[in-house]
Amino acid sequence: xxxxxxxxxxxxxxxxxxxxxxxxxxxxxxxxxxxxxxxxxxxxxxxxxxxxxxxxxxxxxxxxxx
Length: 66
Fold this sequence. Notes:
- The protein is of the alpha+beta class.
- The chain contains one helix and three strands; from the N terminus they run βαββ.
- The protein has one domain.
- The protein is about 25% helix and about 45% strand.
C-alpha cells in the first residue's frame, strides 16, 4: 500500500546542447544531495538544441530539498 505521506516530485535542469555536460552535472549534484534512498530516476530529452534533464524523487512533508 502506498505511503500517503510520500509523493513524487521532480527537479528540471534546462539549457542548450552546448552545455549538455553542465546540465548532467547539475542533475547529478542534486541527485547526490537528496540521496539514493529518495532517488527514483534521472531522465533527459532534447528538441531543437534545447536539452532537459529531470531528476525524479520521493518527497514528504517537511523535507528540505526540492
